[in-house]
Amino acid sequence: MKLSYANVTSTLALIIALGGTAAYAATKLPDNSVGEFQLRTGAITAQKIRKNAVTAPKIKAEAVKQGKIAAASITAAKLTGGSVANSSLQSSSVTNDKLAPEAVTGDKALESTFSQVPSAAKAEFATNAESANPPAFAAVSSEATVDSSYSKAIASVKDGTLAGTYCVTASGFIPRGAQVTPRFTSEGDVSAYVRIGGTADCPAPQVEVQTFDGGTRAREPFYLVLYR
User: Looking at the 3D structure of the chain, how many domains does it have?
Assistant: First the structure.
C-alpha cells in the first residue's frame, strides 16, 4: 500500500489519542482501587498527612505506645478532664519534683491518711500550746533570782527601775506570749501582771513583770511561762 500524507497524519493522530487516554487512566484511579498492599514502604510520611486527618476514632486501641510519643508532646492543655485515672499511672511515677508549687492543697488530702507528726518541734505553735513543756519558764524570787531547778531557757531576770518590776529575757527567741502567776507565800494579797513587746523600763525583746501586794507595787516571787 502506498503511504500518503493523509494516511500518515491519521495514524499519528490515533497514536496520540491512545497515548493520552493511557496517561489519563494512570493519573485517574478508580475509587477504592489503592489498598494497603499497593502502598510502598515509607510512602506515607507525616508531611503527607492532612492536618486533623487522624482523629481518635481512627486510631486502633493501644496503637500509640510510650516509645512512639515525642518528649514533652503531651501537655496539660491536651488532656481532657478525668482522662488520666489512678489505674493509668505507673507506680511511683508522680514524685515531689513533678508536682507544681501548691498543687496539693488541704481539700485534696485525705485527713485519715496522715499519721501523727513525728517531731512536734517542727510544728512550732503546736509545741508552744503544750503547757506541759513550754519553750521557756522560770521560778523567780522577789530578789530577781532564778531557781534553775524549776526554770528553762530564761537568760536573765533583772530589777526594773520601780520596786516590784522585773525585766525578763528569754534564750534564743522573742516571746510572743506569756503567763505569770504569783508564788504562794501564805500571806498578803499578792497579784502579778506581765507585758510582752517591750516597755520603757524593759525594752524589747525583754518581758516586763510587775508584782503587787494589796494593790501596791511590791517585790514578790512569781512563776513565768513564755511562748514563741
Answer: 1
